[in-house]
């Protein structure tokens, strides 16, 4: 297998990505969530049309992005909430992750959060 992580981390292609991961605990019957900022290196680009097709029409807000990282990124599951990314002054929620571990990277599709 070809490991493409070197290309994703190449200084001419990669950039610093601010990732926000949520965790929490039950305190006195209420769930208190804490947002933990993380920094990753990777490549961010506009999402391709076939990437956007994975997102239900009602969740498409325009400006979807594709994020390529060597570190794992999480989407909503029974055990947690999706990671979020800050890029170019906007906040995006991770919608889908394709784990290409055999090739050394993760491809994530993120949707811009509604700023209303």
List low-confidence stretches. Answer: none
Instruction: Characterize the main sheet.
Output: 6 strands, antiparallel, barrel
Mean pLDDT score: 86
Q: In the residues, how many domains can be counted? A: 1
Fourth CATH level, the homologous superfamily: Bacteriophage SPP1 head-tail adaptor protein
How many DSSP H or I helices?
2
Proportion of helical residues:
under 10%
What multimeric state do the chains show? single chain
CATH topology: Thrombin, subunit H
Q: Based on helices, strands and strand pairing, what is the structural class?
A: mainly beta
- The CATH architecture classification is Beta Barrel
Give the total of beta strands.
6
For the largest sheet, list the strands in their spatial order: 1-2-3-6-5-4
Strand content: over 45%
What is the terminal-to-terminal distance? 45 Å
Radius of gyration: 15 Å
The geometry reads as: globular
Determine and state the CATH class: Mainly Beta
| Strand and helix order | HEEHEEEE
């Amino acid at each position: 297998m070809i490991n493409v992580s070197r290309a994703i981390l190449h200084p001419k292609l990669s950039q610093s990505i601010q990732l926000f991961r949520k965790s929490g605990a039950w305190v006195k019957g209420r769930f208190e969530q804490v947002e933990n900022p993380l920094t990753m290196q990777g490549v961010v680009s506009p999402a391709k049309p076939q990437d956007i097709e994975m997102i239900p029409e009602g969740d498409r807000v325009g400006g979807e992005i594709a994020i390529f990282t060597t570190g794992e990124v999480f989407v909503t599951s029974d055990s947690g909430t999706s990671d979020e990314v800050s890029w170019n002054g906007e906040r995006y929620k991770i919608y889908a992750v394709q784990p290409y571990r055999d090739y050394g990277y993760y491809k994530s599709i993120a949707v811009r959060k509604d700023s209303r």
